[in-house]
Amino acid sequence: MKNNQVNLEVYNQMYLGKLGELTLKGSNVKVFEKQLLTNVKYALSGLPAKMWLSSGRLYIACKEECCAAVEYALDHLIGITGWAKVRCVEKTIDAIKAAVREEGLAAKASGAKSFKIDARREDKAFELNSYEIAIQAAGVLFDDNTLAVDVHHPDAVINVEVRDKCYVYCAQKKTCRGLPVGVSGKGLLLLSGGIDSPVAGYRMMRRGMKVDCIYFHSYPYTSEEAQKKVEDLAKIIGQFGVETYLNVIPFTQVQMHIKSHSPENYSTLMLRLCMMKCANLLAPRTGAQAIITGESLGQVASQTNENMACTESFAEYPLYRPLIGLDKEEIINTAEFLGTYPISILPYEDCCVLFSPRHPVLRAPVEEAKRIYDEMKIDELVQKAFDERKIIHFSIQDSIKEQFGQ
Ligand code: ATP
Ligand code: MG
User: Fold this and answer.
1) What is the pLDDT confidence band of residue 253, given thresholds at 50, 70 and 90?
2) Which of 192, 277, 352, 354 to mutate to test the pocket of ligand 1 (most atoms within 8 A of CB)?
C-alpha cells in the first residue's frame, strides 16, 4: 500500500517509524520489512489504521480514536529505532513552514527555548535542497524570536522529510531496535517467576526470535500466585514478542521423585536436567529450534561452568543463554524497561527455592550427573508431566483490545 491509496482525510493522524538495523541487511531487507509489517498489522488488527512501508520508513495512518493503541503498539514493536507522530503536509515550502511553526509552538509550550531544523530531501525533484529547506523553515520560528537557533545543543529538533509528501515532526520516541520478531525462527524460553528469564526472552526477541514459554509448576509447593506471576510475565513477553504460548507443566511428581531418589546435593541439578528433557519434548511441538534460559555465569550454584555443562549435555537443541555475561544490575535495568521487574520481585516462592539442598554440588562431573539421572528412572514421569501441560496464549493484539477496548 502507498500513501496515495489511503484517504488521509479519514485516517488523519499519522505516525512514522524508523527502521534501524533493517536497512543494513542487503537482500534480506524485503523479508525483514515484510515481517515488521505483518507484526504491526497483527497488533492493530480490527482498528481503523492503515500501515505501509516506504524507503526505510514505517507509516501508520489512523483515526484519532485509535492513537493511543497505535502508540502502544509502536512502543512494543521490535525492529524500529524510534517513532514519532508526524504532520503530513503537501510538498510546498509554504506547507512545510506552516507545519514547522506548529511544531515549534508546541515545543515552546512544553518548555523548549532553542531548536534546529533537520531537513532531508528524499525526493530530489523538490525545488529546494535540504539546506535551503532548513534555512527557510527555521525563519518561521527565528524571525519573530519564538525560539532561538542552536545547532549544537537544541532543546527541540524539528525534522522535515520531503518524500511522497512532506513529513514534519519533533519529538521522537526511542524504542526497542533489533530485528522484527519472526525473522530468526522460534525459541523455547524456560520462564520462571524470577528477574532473569523474561529478560533472556526479550534479548532473543530482539534478535528476531519468536518466543514460546515453558514454566514448571509444583502445586501446592508453589502457589497459584506464583503461577499468576509467571502468566503476567508471559503476557509482557507476548506484548514485545507479538504473541507467545505459555506451557504450564505440572512438575510436582517429578520434584517429589527427585527428592526421594537423588542425593540431596544433586537435587537442583537433577531438576534442571528434567526441565531440559521436558523442553526437548516440547520444542518440536511448538516449532522451536532452540532452548533459552536466563542463566548467568556464577550467579547461583547451578550456574557454574561444570553444572551448566551437565544441563547442556541434556539439551537436544542449541541452548541460548543470552544473559551469560551480564551482571544483575544490567539485567535489572532491562527488566525495569520491560516492566517485568515489579512482577518478578513479588515474594511468591519458586519451586527451586523450596526444594533447594543446603549444600548443592558446585562442580558436577557430566558422567556422574548422567548416572544419577538414569538411576532415578524418571523419564516416564517427565513424559506424564509433559502430557498434562496447560497452554495459555498471550498477544499484543489481545493486550491492545483489553486496554483500549476496540
Ligand atoms: P530467574 O531469575 O530467571 O528465575 P535465577 O537466577 O533464579 O533465574 P535459577 O533459579 O537457577 O536462576 O534458574 C535458572 C534458569 O532456569 C532460569 O533463568 C529459567 O530459565 C530456568 N528456570 C528455573 N526455574 C524454572 C521454572 N520453575 N520453570 C521454568 N524455567 C525455570
Ligand atoms: Mg529462578
Assistant:
1) very high
2) 192
